[in-house]
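Re: the 244-residue chain
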Amino acid sequence: MIHVFILGYNGAQYLSNWHSQVKFEKDIKFYYIDNGNQSLTPYLHQLFHYKSSKNLFCSGGWNLICDIAFKSLELDKIIIGQEDAIFTDEILREISNQTSPSRICGTYDRSFEFSLFGIHSKTFKDVGRFDENFILGGNEDNDYKQRCKLKNINIISLNISADYNISITGGLRAHYNNINSNYLHKKWGNYINAENRIYEYEVPFNGKKHDKLDFEYKKYFDLTKKDTKFMSELEYKLYKTQNI
């Protein structure tokens, strides 16, 4: 069985329109995780699995999906996608075939691998959780790519045109682009090789102490100094209470 988790935010209707027109075999199981408190279409009710209590951002949504998949459902590997990333049955099978403990398989070209990607439970355990300090979305994938390199985990792409990924959420996070870029470079330094995304530091923040929850993250959620858990960690506890 191929398990595909779709993280929703503001494209429920768009997903319903294109996904319902594609033929998928019965050995592909879909889960819809709504991260935007949307009204679900009748079609999405067939895929629906969980609605988060608040927007967890892209990284937080991915972490919640991995917690659900690897901890609660005890799956070995999954595919994570989004509402606006169009794919076929054949694409999902190739992603699944190419995904292993030492390889993340993405789909699209132009550095959009993480719009639809396969990840193994062992990879998630070895590399760790996605960094939720990236506000809404942007650069969380570059951070994870760097961490994968340091663990000798390859990230490949099927190099399917990114035109199939229309990025309908892009405008919502434009305000935080500079904040996310500054956080990324504070964490990993500048590029040594910009083309291959190789950074100065081999350890986060060059070994300097840094709070787990960044200042901007706490500011966004109005958290206090005593708060030490990311939103996805709290949300997974809530998920478990509803799915005992």
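The mean pLDDT is 93.
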